[in-house]
Amino acid sequence: MQLICFPLTHQLENRIKKAKAGDIEEREVLINDYIPFIIKTVSNTLNRYIESEDSDEYIIGLEAFNEAIDKYDPGKGKFISFASIVIRSRVTDFMRRQKRYNDELMKCVSDQEDHQSYDTEDNLDLKAEIEEFEDRLKSFGITLNELVRQCPKHKDSRLNALRIARYIYSNGELKQELIRKRRLPVTSITRALSVSEKLINYNRIFIIASVLILDSDMECLKCYISEVVGGAENDI
Amino acid sequence: MIYKGHVLLLEKDYAVVMTDTAAYVKVIARKGLAVGERIIFTDEDLLKKKWTVATKTWKYAAACVLLLFIAVLQLYLSNIGRTNGAIAAVVSLDINPSIEIEINNKGEVINYIPLNYEGNVILDTRPEGKPVSEAVCKLLENAADQGYLEDEKSSVLVSLSPLITGLDVSLEDIEADILSFTNGNSRLAGIDLMFVYGSKAILEDARRSEVSPGRYFMYKKLKESETDLKIETVRTMELKKLFNRFRHGQGDNDQIKTFSESDNGKFLYEAVYEQIQLRYRMRNMEMYQHQIEPQIQERIQSQERIRVGDEKENTENGMIQGSEIQDKLQGTDSGQNSSKEGSGEGKGAQGGVDDGSSQVLNTSGEPQAQEQNYGIDIRNSTNENPAAVITPETEESGDNGNKDEEKDYGDKNQEGRPDKPEKGNKK
Q: CB distance A224–B42 less than 8 Å?
């Protein structure tokens, strides 16, 4: 184990040295490379998930990591352990400071002990829409757990399935047929898109769920679909 | 890796999240999670059976597993024998999924090794004991099912690396079987399938460099002309681009391959024939067999009696340069006269196969006025109609040329030169 660790640690220490010495690019790349570590450490400290890259805790985590780069002394232990301590310390300090403020300030921050700040009208709407989506899936005999199991693992596979879903959604007749008969119009799709029946059947659940999302008001989820399909089209 | 997404379902121990790449995953439930909430999470938060959240050393554990894997592999490679259980060759498959298949002396599968995540995806079942060509064809079908062959002319690279000499199974037979299957399968007939032949050394280097043997083979070949090419570039390059580079990037003089020492003494047509067999892979093996081979045989009936290694009389230094042959390789259908004299490097008659869009191999039978061309024009075709046209060109009267040749190489006639070459034992 030591033989494997040593080269990895040594490489990291060199990078930290460079960053400390003033290499801004190296510092940025280093921070970027360790974003998953930072997110994990902040989440573990808060004992909840971070909401977005704009959240205060995330930014505190980045700043703490940056501080750790400046303060790290190789003679005193591994960098990762040190950085972890610094991040936890800064995030905990931040949480304590936040607790001292009044309710209005706490609404701006997702405090783990106060769900009221989270349940804004938008979130409640989305929650209701998601529950409706779940019900619609059930009418097709599909559960969300099954959707996780059957979801194509590869992004390209999902892209192909999403294209089929988009086609069905944009074609009024096919969409109606799907909703009415509770099954995919396989023959029409294979003819129109020159895809194999096997592919459609393999991704049946994913395609149906995607059509239902496109047919809903859940803008954030629809956005995810457009990003995948749109991103691929931009590449072309 | 980091993920972003919205929570769709919340259970006691986990939540179902739709990610920003339209995937549905389960994450470990944490305090404060609610349906409709947007979250950022990492791989460690994904709910997996053998995963523990607080494991700090998973990276090191993964590294240890990799080391162990390499150690076991080394053990395998060092214990090569002729028993059915011993690994006699490795076949690798690259699409985007990458897989290695270890086979025994008889070409039956011993083990499957996925080389990346996608490789695992198409390895739904892992039947052992199957003939490897059947296994590869099944994997190709799985890949098509999973959408990995949706592109027009998806590139597929198969490498065949023998680890011992004297295999009972013929690697060329394996190639022919796979080609035959794909040509007959409507979903696979459109793929751009390339076969390369590696070796034990290539396999070992490939594994050290953490790429598939097929990609490593291409890296080695490309590096001959692109000396600053890095393995990382080849590791991540899209296969289609790699194919293009491999096929077209070697058109300059230096890439004309000379024959090796082991070819010395062979008749030129034999050596060329072998090079075509080995170095140029046609999709349409059947067409090759029915059209090209008879034409080569026809040429063999003709007067070419040059042997690799022969010097030419009445020439300044006797050798034909690859560069002079390159002059002929201008994509003409009919081939042109090769030059008579060389500028003196290398040994013997030189020729080779250029994997460009139009390939012409020329060699001159006889210098001076009598010129005879041995033109083989094989269009590198992944298009509709692979065209393979043998265009023999005789500049002057063929008979004269022949007589001169016979005069030059009369001595060699007595050395037991075969009247006709043997037909290759290749399919």
A: no
Query: Is B328 exposed, middle or buried, given 0-12, 13-18 or 19+ CB atoms closer than 10 A?
Result: buried
Q: Which of B394, B386, B377, B288 is nearest to B331 (CA)?
A: B377
> Is the CB of residue B34 less than 8 Å away from at least one CB of chain A?
yes
Q: Which residue has 């081939």 as its token pair?
A: B335
Task: Report the C-alpha gap between B409 and B424 in whole angstroms.
Answer: 25
Query: With an 8 Å Cβ cutoff, are A196 and B35 in contact?
Result: no
Pairing state between β B358-361 and B38-42: unpaired
ipTM of the complex: 0.85
Strand partners, B373: B364, B393
Encoded tokens for A118? 């989270």
Residue type, A37: F
Alpha helices (H) along B280-416: 285-287, 293-300, 322-328, 398-408, 410-413
- C-alpha to C-alpha distance for A116 and A103, rounded to whole angstroms: 10
For the stretch B343-399, pLDDT in tens is: 333 333 333 333 333 332 334 333 333 333 334 333 333 333 333 333 333 333 333
Token representation of residue B324: 């002079």
**Number of Cβ within a 10 Å radius of residue B265:** 15
**Residue A144: its chain B contacts at CB < 8 A?**
8-9, 16, 24
Strand order in the sheet with B2-10: B24-28, B14-19, B2-10, B38-42
Show the tokens assigned to A86: 């610094």
Instruction: Tell me how far apart the alpha carbons of residues A105 and B121 are, in angstroms, rounded to a whole number.
Output: 48
Query: Distances in Å between the alpha carbon of A105 and those of A110, A114, B394?
Result: 10, 12, 93
> Residue A106: helix, strand or coil by DSSP?
helix
What is chain B's Cα-based Rg? 27
